[in-house]
Specification:
Layout (H helix, E strand, L loop, with lengths): L8 H20 L16 E5 L2 E8 L8 E10 L2 E2 L1 E11 L5 E4 L3 E5 L2 E6 L4 E11 L10 E9 L5 H34 L1
Antiparallel strand pairs: 1-2, 2-3, 3-4, 3-8, 5-6, 5-7, 5-9, 9-10
Helix pairs in contact: 1-2
Length: 192
């Protein structure tokens, strides 16, 4: 007796895994950053202040308005993260000199931390990281100040749009091919 619905899962497993992987890549959109920012990481901005290196890795590296940008900070001495720092952030519009964000001082057990922010207007902004280091005689009372210039655009670049279109088109084409292969294998099994 032949069952009405014969379905072999091995023909379904590979295509569904590929589709799941593609969707995962699209959904994550690369929104991750390692906890430690290495000094040879692409797109970082490094400021040297005395014996310290203050690192900023904005993500995305070309922020656009009305989308969250993560400012990933790191304070290092001799390529090693500092522990137990106090810091606060200000964001100032470079043109108008208007302060648009001012956090309070916060204790960071590790000097790797992220501040998310959404810009409402395009332009150039100054991101200032104020850091107090309790064991440093200079920066225990007066903060170390690192200023970073960040340009915020109104929309994504043409290259970013092209990459997205190619990625979406590839996923659609792969999905169509997979569906065609599955259908063909099911038709072949029915005729046997």
């Amino acid at each position: 007796m032949i069952s009405v619905c014969q379905f072999n899962f091995r023909y379904f497993l590979l295509p569904s895994s590929i589709i799941f992987a593609c969707i995962s890549v699209l959904v994550s959109n690369g929104n991750h950053v390692q906890a430690h920012i290495f000094l040879d990481t692409p797109n970082i901005i490094v400021k040297d202040i005395e014996k310290y290196k203050i690192v900023l890795l904005p993500f995305p590296n070309n922020p656009i308005i009305n989308e969250t940008v993560n400012f990933n900070f790191n304070v290092q001495e001799n390529k090693t993260d500092l522990n137990g720092i106090f810091s606060h952030i200000t964001i100032t519009n470079n043109k108008t000199k208007q302060l648009i964000f001012n956090s309070t001082y916060k204790f960071h057990e590790f000097s790797d931390f992220t501040i998310p922010f959404v810009f409402n207007e395009s332009g150039t902004y100054v991101i200032s990281l104020y850091t107090k280091i309790s064991w440093d005689p200079t920066f225990s009372k007066n903060p170390m100040i690192a200023n970073f210039d960040i340009k915020v655009s109104e929309n994504t670049t043409d290259l970013e749009n092209t990459v997205r279109i190619i990625m979406y088109a590839s996923i659609i084409i792969i999905s169509i091919v997979i569906v065609f292969i599955i259908k063909k294998s099911l038709i072949k099994k029915k005729s046997i």
